[in-house]
Amino acid sequence: RLATVEGSDSQADWNVLVKEAYVFDFTRNIESRYLRIEFPLSNFRYLRVKVVDDGGGPLEITGAKLFAVTKEEAQTEQWPLATVNRTENQEKKTTEIILDPSYRAIPIREIEIAVESPNYHRNVEAFSSADKENWVFAGSGIIYNYDLPTFKKTNNHFFINEKTSGRYLKLIVHNYDDQPLQIDNCVGRSLVRRVILPAPAGNRYLLYFGSTSASAPVYDIAHRIPYIETERLPRLTLSARRPNPKYIEPTGPWTEEHAWLLWAIIGAVILFLAALIFNLMRKTPPQQPQG
After folding, report:
1. What residues contact residue 278 under an 8 Å CB cut-off, 6+ apart?
2. For residue range 218-240, what is the model confidence (pLDDT) as tens digits?
């Protein structure tokens, strides 16, 4: 339904705070509702909410809650997701899209899908993989578009687990009995992260990265961050990336590094046992039948 919100100090003169807002509840087997109306900060004593019947009869409204919310959006950065492969699974009635952000273990927490098709409501699942063979569940959400004469609302993004370690992402869009959506592209978003460190004069820092076995460090400075105006700190820049001269390529188990020697030893043991059995058989006299 279409709704408006007005404010007043005397209930005589009303000022429009929100002219066109929508509330909806399409819950069937899956919950899909939005019953909040956001409006600018105001200090009116009285608020009046009008919900348009639109020929559907009045809604049974039993009450309302008022929230004073202060939002501070986290700073994010956008990652393009290249489409590696897209397939239509006729049997499962799904669209499967494999995406590549170009790097491994990027902490993507949100995926937005650009959809050209109008009027849809689809469940989407996301999976992560390092080799495009073994997939681990990363999250799910609902994308929808309602483009109706009396109601318009769109949501094409959903959140996933940002701690996935694989390079590739796979989206499974459940079409059910509808036609597949016309999807143009996908983008990922992650929170902007910064490294804060003490920088005494004359110190030179090296940043090592790329280790898959490194654990999260624990420093005293983490407890001082809430009391530091981080926005006023000087910014450092990185020099060009170069290989670490002290890096030693990890080796596998000894048996894998010297597999040929292991097989040679096994072969020698087999030949020795075969020769031993053959000699025993030659030295053992045949037994005469009794009776």
Report:
1. none
2. 899 888 888 888 888 888 888 89
